[in-house]
Design a protein that fits this description.
two-stranded antiparallel sheet, 8-stranded parallel barrel, 320 residues, 38% helix
Length: 320
Amino acid sequence: MKTVILGKTGLEVSVLGLGCGGYSKLGLVQNRGDDNAESIVRKALDSGITLVDTARGYGTEHHVGAAVRDFGRDRITVCTKSAPRMQPGVVKKANDLERSIDESLEALGLDCIDVYQLHGVHAEEYIRSRDVLIPALHKMVEKGKIRFFGITEAFEKDTTHQMQSMAARDGCWHTLMVGYNIINQSADTRVFPSARKSETGILGMFAVRHALVDDDRLREVVAVLVERGEIDSSLLDPNDPLGFARAESESGSLPEVAYRFSVHNSDIHVTLCGTGSTPHLEDNIRAAQKPPLSPETTRALKKIFANVASESGKALHKGI
């Protein structure tokens, strides 16, 4: 597995990371059990993945910790996170944040978290979260409970990156977790240029969404975006919008195309993949190890979706 340096953290990490939340939560959502969840983490680490991302709210921290402890702590970058709010409109205080960190440390069974992130921060709570919690995070670094800190966005609601645009300009975070995929590439202009200047590490999420797995959903999303004027219908076949890109995969796999598109974006240090089974994880790893899409295909994808900023790729209905 290819590795990169995660921005100003200096951590050497794999370009594909294991996300332990999302729609599967290591298979827990499908009731596949604790053994399956831990086996997925172990398989990822066996396969060269060195960054694992979990969260207090996922219920997977103890599965991550159990697997990581078997692999030698210095080889693995463990990321976890919790929301910055106690309830809507009420940002945590410093002691609340430390309590959350202590709970994560206990669940993980670790002495230190490599990257601790504020989870799903909304644009309207960003300034207070930054001003109140960054000093607390620095204190957690001084205490040795965390090494670095970052912030993640609520991309399904904030598809224009209002929050992460502010965070990237501030340059005070070690990492940003940003939604990015073929359909919504708006971070290319709204987040990445500022992050690049401050050498902020980028964790990419949402590389594969429903619309990049299911052809019916993809056609639905494209039709709505054409109607909104965000896509020029003359640039694609509405019946097979990404057929030209799919042709670059021997198996015709659209998720493979989606991972290759994200993994080979030089502004994204780590592309996160979520899964509920080891066979699916193996598919994701194979996709990440494929070469970049051809320059022609990459240019076409960027041209088609250049103006899309209203959709994350989840769409299941006309309202999106």
